[in-house]
Amino acid sequence: MKSPLLLAGCLILASSLSVLGADAAANYAKHCAACHAKDGTGNTVQGKKTGAKDYTKDQSFSDAAAFKAIKEGVTDGGKEKMKAYGEKLSDDEIKALVAYVRKFKG
Fold first, then answer.
1. Is 16 or 38 the better-scoring residue by pLDDT?
2. pTM of this prediction exceeds 0.85
3. How many CA atoms lie within 13 A of 61 on its CB side?
């Protein structure tokens, strides 16, 4: 009796995690790739203009700092370097994006 319930629970959890992964990839493509590039290198016209990080090499930031940057945006000397996405993305979506960005580090 416990085995079918356990199996069902595991399947539900696995399917929800794969959906979160797909959402993170879609949100990255929609909101981040124009500057940070599909591959996370920051090698785009806009990425070069704003100094976007190369996530394949530089991940010297905490998850909390990445979350804050995505939610609140990034400014330097009063100039916007990255738009805030706190009104477009939920906290869970932002956390999923942070985890997604971590995958670029090889």
1. 38
2. no
3. 20
Are 70 and 85 in contact by the 8 Å Cβ rule? The answer is yes
Q: What is the CATH number of the domain that holds 44?
A: 1.10.760.10
Confidence of residue 72 (pLDDT cuts 50, 70, 90): very high
Structural domain including 91 reads 2-102
CA distances from 98 to 32, 66, 67, 80, 95 (A): 11, 6, 7, 20, 5
Is the separation of the CB atoms in 33 and 64 below 8 Å? no
CA dist 99 → 39, 61, 102 (Å): 15, 12, 5
Q: Which of 31, 73, 37 is nearest to 52 (CA)?
A: 37
Look at residue 15 and tell me whether its pLDDT is greater than 50: no
Count the domains in the chain. Answer: 1
Amino acid at 89: L
Distance between CA 29 and CA 32 in Å, rounded? Answer: 6
